[in-house]
Amino acid sequence: MRTYAQYCPMVRAVEVLGDRWTLLIVRDMLIGATRFNEISRGLPGLSRALLSRRLRQLSNAGLVVRTADGYALTPAGQDLRPLVFGLADWGARHAFGDPRPEELDPELLMWWMHGRIDTTDIAKRAVIQVVIADRRRTYWLVLEPGDASVCYTDPGFDIDAVLSSDLPTLYRMWEGEIELLDAVRAGTIDLTGARWIVRGLPGWLRLSPIAETVRASRRG
Length: 220
Prior knowledge:
Elements: H1 9-17, H2 22-30, H3 36-42, H4 48-60, E1 64-67, E2 70-73, H5 75-78, H6 81-94, H7 106-115, E3 126-132, E4 137-144, E5 147-151, E6 161-165, H8 167-174, H9 180-186, E7 190-193, H10 195-204, H11 211-219
Parallel strand pairs: 3-6
Antiparallel strand pairs: 1-2, 3-4, 4-5, 6-7
């Protein structure tokens, strides 16, 4: 590994964390990803070979350890939380403009969304068809007591509700720029189906972990 040859704690931190993808791997582990395939699925532009290399580097630096079923952050890794989410706060205030087309991946968004659904109050199966009109793509969220999954092909269940919008709007909702119910009232997101799902989904869907940061930056 090339170094900056400066005796400074900031330089040492950059040497550990400054490689491409490293901070995003830490970000995803801070919000709950523990298995190799989970981390890989959440970072689709990262090759599995490079992910393995970055995890080894983080392990050698004392930030990650192997566990029986994956990986975990050490206390030193957990101490990166204020740094990582501090960067998110700075980005939301100073570098977060309109989404670029290459930033909008529908499958990644669905993967993120299914992982942030709180199934505590879901008493029976709910199947929500998600239609992304501008991409002509359809996905299915299958919510059950204690579990949420996303299907990229028709799971064969009856559809209980339909959520439809264009991809930029769904991303803006996910990132906290617009509220789901506000978008439904404005007609930019269409949510129809069983009343208990239409009423429940805004509470079940916990948005991006940095959604509150984005909201605060917009208010500011």
